[in-house]
Design brief:
Blueprint lengths: L40 E4 L3 H12 L2 E6 L4 H6 L3 E9 L2 E8 L17 E4 L3 H15 L16 E2 L5 E6 L5 E6 L6
Parallel strand pairs: 1-4, 5-8
Antiparallel strand pairs: 2-3, 3-4, 6-7, 7-8
């Protein structure tokens, strides 16, 4: 039977950068913070160059680093991995990588996967810009698309939240969200 551990009962980073040992003690310590911080989304593709270029042109992302040599653990987890590029737009980091011999089709709707990735924009007009920019970037003809879905219209929910849904060339869905300061 599984049981939930109490806060502080797992391996956590401490203020000094060390680690505590797994324990069942329920003591709390002011220097222990186990709250994870978001780091990146990994995107497996069969076109690293094209995918990287799309994020550069669509979101204004910049390449932070790339690598072609991987640890034994990484090659065991991801057989065939040969190239990885980190691109960053705002605080959104994407790790774009390939695996030789793994030609990919679009994600199927019923497969277990992330349904979409949500990212916040600061102003409502950014949604309009991102929608128009998607068409501009797509119309260059520089990308190979696994599905041909256009961006959604900008939708507004009952609380005033505005959303735009777009697919990247790999068929991965992004939701860009604007939250008004006060619900309407």
């Amino acid at each position: 039977m599984r049981r939930a551990l109490s806060p502080g009962a797992d391996v956590c980073s401490t203020a000094g950068g060390g680690h505590t040992v797994t324990t069942t003690e329920t003591t709390s310590h002011p220097d222990v913070d186990c709250s994870p911080q978001f780091n990146h989304i990994a995107i497996q593709t069969d076109d690293v160059e094209g995918t990287t270029l799309w994020y550069e042109n669509y979101l204004g992302a910049t390449v932070q680093w790339s690598m072609d040599t991987f640890s034994d653990l990484t090659t065991a987890r991801l057989p065939g991995i040969s190239h990885l590029v980190e691109v960053k737009a705002g605080n959104l980091r994407l790790h774009v990588f390939d695996r030789q011999g793994n030609d990919l089709a679009a994600p199927q709707d019923l497969q277990r996967r992330f349904q979409h990735l949500g990212a916040t924009v600061e102003r409502a007009e950014h949604l309009t810009y991102l929608r128009e920019r998607w068409f501009e970037v797509r119309d260059t003809g520089d990308y190979r698309w696994v599905r041909d879905d256009e961006p959604s219209e900008i939708v507004v929910d009952s609380q005033g939240m505005q959303s735009l849904y777009v697919f990247d060339p790999n068929g991965l869905e992004f939701e860009f969200v604007y939250f008004p300061e006060t619900p309407q």
